[in-house]
Design brief:
This protein is α+β, with helices and mostly antiparallel strands. The protein has eight helices and ten strands. A five-stranded mixed β-sheet has the order 4-3-5-10-6, with helices on one face. Strands 8-7-9 form a three-stranded antiparallel β-sheet. Strands 1-2 form a two-stranded antiparallel sheet. Strand 3, helix 5 and strand 4 (119-125) form a beta-alpha-beta unit.
């Protein structure tokens, strides 16, 4: 069995959908289906039950999934050890400078335990680049928030955080239990500089064109609200600081924490980072929002 074919199989087994697996692998569905059929021929048994209702693993497929994970982990470990021996075991991680995320803290500890000899370099970016330098080739993987241009990237959601309006504590709307975007329609919002990813800018402006001061960092956002009475959005569970408050917005979709990497990057340290990140955020998602 080729490792590439096993990666194809794992993608289908985890997504339980050939179309989603093909999109995750950045390939079309027909060659993926052919590869899985060839693998079933080699194994001598069906790996998936296919029906109009969807795709499910057979008993044989469940066994292979466990073994495939072990084989792929072993292959990645071998690649890592060779890289360490060659003095090339480094991973550059881009992080959006918005907060001290407990999920990121768990991830750092778990990754260090799994890869104690890998040098992890951190590149923190401001709010003007949600890919944290990924599109520019400055980092290997980004721990950030969406939405943004995903061209050439693979993106996996880790957690969804509710958002609210960031207001001065003495704002007439500050005492509300919740707000809708229409309540803020006539207000000035903080903006990101020209050239910022349009999907990112649109999300943090509630999907509408706005007017207001230009900011680049979280502290600048807070100061714009504090000094000018500007309106913006932030996470509901973020501490806004003195003289500021956050009122939940009931008609805004949550902000997605995501891990992203270049789709054509074969670095096994990235794959391991993604697996560990998924586990680290999944393990504490409820307590993080409590």
């Amino acid at each position: 069995m080729e490792l590439r074919t096993l990666r194809y199989f794992v993608a289908v087994a985890e997504e339980l959908h050939f179309g989603r697996a093909a999109a995750r692998l950045h390939m079309s569905q027909p060659p993926l289906s052919r590869a899985i059929r060839q693998l079933e021929s080699e194994v001598g048994a069906a790996l998936f039950d296919r029906s109009p209702a969807g795709v499910t693993l057979t008993d044989v497929g469940a066994v292979l999934l466990t073994e495939a994970h072990a084989l792929l982990d072993r292959a990645d470990l071998a690649h890592e050890r060779v890289a360490v021996a060659a003095g090339a075991a480094t991973l550059t991680v881009g992080i959006l400078g918005d907060s001290a995320d407990p999920g990121a803290t768990r991830l750092a500890a778990a990754y260090r335990r799994r890869h104690p000899r890998v040098e992890v370099r951190i590149r923190e970016t401001d709010l003007t680049d949600p890919t944290c330098g990924l599109h520019a080739g400055l980092v290997d993987v980004a721990l950030t928030r969406g939405p943004f241009d995903q061209t050439g990237l693979t993106v996996r959601a880790l957690r969804a955080d509710p958002v609210g309006a960031l207001l001065r504590a003495d704002d007439p709307l500050a005492g509300r239990g919740h707000l809708k975007l229409a309540d803020l329609a006539d207000r000035r919002w903080f903006l990101f500089p020209q050239g910022t990813d349009p999907g990112w800018q649109s999300y943090w402006n509630g999907g509408e064109p706005r007017e207001g001061p230009v900011v680049r960092a979280v502290q600048e956002c807070r100061q714009a609200v504090l000094w000018n009475g500007t309106v913006g959005m932030t996470l509901v569970d973020h501490d806004p600081g003195a003289e500021l408050t956050v009122v939940p917005l009931v008609d805004m979709p949550p902000s997605q924490v995501v891990v992203a990497w270049r789709a054509d990057d074969p670095n096994p340290l990235i794959r391991s980072f993604v697996r560990i990140a998924t586990a680290a955020y999944g393990a504490g998602s409820s307590s993080d929002r409590a």
